[in-house]
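call fold(seq) -> tokens
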Amino acid sequence: MDLADRLGHRDLITARSPEAVWDEWRNVSASSLYNFQGITYARLRKERGLQWPCRAPEHPGIARRYLESEDPFVQKGAGIEFYGNHAKKAVVYLRPYVPSPERTSADYPMYLTTGRILEQFHTGTLTGRIQELHDAAGPAKIQINPQDAFVLRIQDGDPVEVKSKYGTVRGEAVLTEMSRRGVVFASFYDSRLLINFAVADNYDPASKEPEFKVTAVSVHRTSVWDVVS
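ret:
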């Protein structure tokens, strides 16, 4: 809206509020197989779990798509119909299981896995701005099982180095039973702990989905905190 106003095209943007923008999309959806015209702001304020298709304000939405008894787009008598596909059937690809190429070894005897924590989302570009979440999460750390830490002579709060054949990351250790023996965990919301420097670059050949959750690594105590690649 602000950009249109500044460029002298205020007449192009008739929706001047979030609700008005949503109403535009509701009306556009009416001509599609995702018809959610019945999901109004008024209903969203009062109801939870509305799912499209939902063609009118009195329509309850559907719990299961493609089922004749619930989905209004399914043809009568079809029972189950995947109408979004030309053959109106589900497209299922059967693929054999392919194990990860990552394997522990004498040089890299542990596995590194990464993920999110409750208080921070992805790289923290939004949640990191909320002081309450920032305070609750604190800085990201390297989580190690206490039994592994005992063998490695690592104590809570020690600086540690996580090394793989892809790269090296240094950060602070925290001992926790949430990490299984042989597995270290780190979240990726904190730019001060760029854990992806050490993460494997393997990916699925069909979906191109990267395998960020399995990387063979070594872990040892260090006196240096810097992150290196």
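The beta strands are 110-115, 142-144, 159-163, 168-175, 183-187, 215-221.
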